Amino acid sequence: MQKPNILLFLMDDLGWKDLGCYGSSFYETPNLDRLAAEGMLFTDAYASCPVCSPTRASILSGKYPAHVGVTQFIGGHAVGKLSDVPYFHCLPQSERSLATALKEDAGYQTWHVGKWHLGGGLSLPERHGFDINIAGSDWGHPLRGYFSPYQMPKLKDGPEGEYLTDRITDEAIQLLDRAASEKEAKPFFLNFWHYAVHTPIEAPKNLVEKYKAKAKDLGLDQIDPIERGEHFSCDHKKDQYIERRQIQSDPGYAAMVENMDTNIGRLLATLERNGQADNTIVIFTSDNGGLATSETSPTSNAPLAEGKGWMYEGGTREPLLVRWPGQIKPGSRCVEPTTSPDLFPTLLEIAGAPPQPPTRIDGKSITPLFKGEAFERGPIFWHYPHYSNQGGCPGCSVREGDYKLIEFFEDDSLELYNLRDDISETKNLSTERPELTQELKRKLDAWKTEVKALIPEPNPNWKAN
């Protein structure tokens, strides 16, 4: 049986509600909506962390961020009432990556295109099993902006004014075309990690103008979308306010989303043109929640609470679309919770590679879900022991079934939510359901011990406002 090609799209800062197929009425995503119609849409898929680098390390290692030791976006550091905890500033060389396993155990050619943010130098994609690396470096976002000249490592500048998302899609298309032209070509793993839709919010002018007009037609330009909240908890932002976006109405962000969708459509069309589509599994997801509380707050994750950098659903619940012709029923939906490290064993199983020892990885293969079969996975965990740039405070959480428990480290407070009845996490049930709260707390504590999760200590230099 021919091994399937693998195309993994990972978006940067794309929120759960940012696609038409997930309910957005302002952003237009026809290509991704079609992908959902041709495959499976997951309603309860999660990133393993509310910020980027840990989720990326989690995908490539199959481990939770606390287990792999990358718990903060690389380069991040903040203190408040609590001190910061150390973390690896790269994907450790000791980790046998997904790309390495696919190449060595299953005979795949492996390509990385786009954002990396898992270290530079000896930690670049080439050092973690990728045959080709285009535009992947230690950069966490386009430091010179989305328009050429980019002055970006691992990517030559294009003509002045060229748009980054268009350019890296061009590069990926060339890889697909080359593979299609080769006789007896190996199956490919294309790890396409977009820089979009991370700040800066920059997009082609014609699309920005389109959404300015759309916002005006809908009357959204007359609504103040930002609600000012409390001060930040971390020291370096304690004089700033959290600014929560209530509605999706930012023309620049909408334009970035549409351009992203258009370019994904170009890749999907290339697969069709080359005769590769029927033997390619396409996966689309994001690294953390949409940016909704700071740094211009360009999107809203409502009805989910908060966004990037927070332990609430808006920080970690993500879109997940999977198309696998002949294996996944078109137009199907899955309500079972999944998490980023699940991609590792799932893709190895699909590729026919030997399974990894359960002591080495935390993810569970979700291939039974593709067939609508029963799936027993147990609880899902998160650990983010840092202050975020978006207002979130250090904490950890666990979800089992419909219930989610959050523990905040500043005051050891606990919050329990029934996500089936309260997706917005508005009613804390911890006092009403003390037995369930303590049961989940015991599981969370045991897991923290198992993965050797680091807990922040009180900051001796902290002074309250």
From TrEMBL:
It holds the Pfam family Sulfatase. One of its GO terms (molecular function) is metal ion binding. Signal peptide: none annotated. Keywords: Calcium, Hydrolase, Metal-binding, Signal. InterPro entries: Alkaline_phosphatase_core_sf, Sulfatase, Sulfatase_CS, Sulfatase_N. Residues 4-353 form the Sulfatase N-terminal domain. Gene3D superfamilies: 3.30.1120.10, Alkaline Phosphatase, subunit A. Its cofactor is Ca(2+). It comes from the Bacteria. Belongs to the sulfatase family. This is Sulfatase. It comes from Puniceicoccus vermicola.
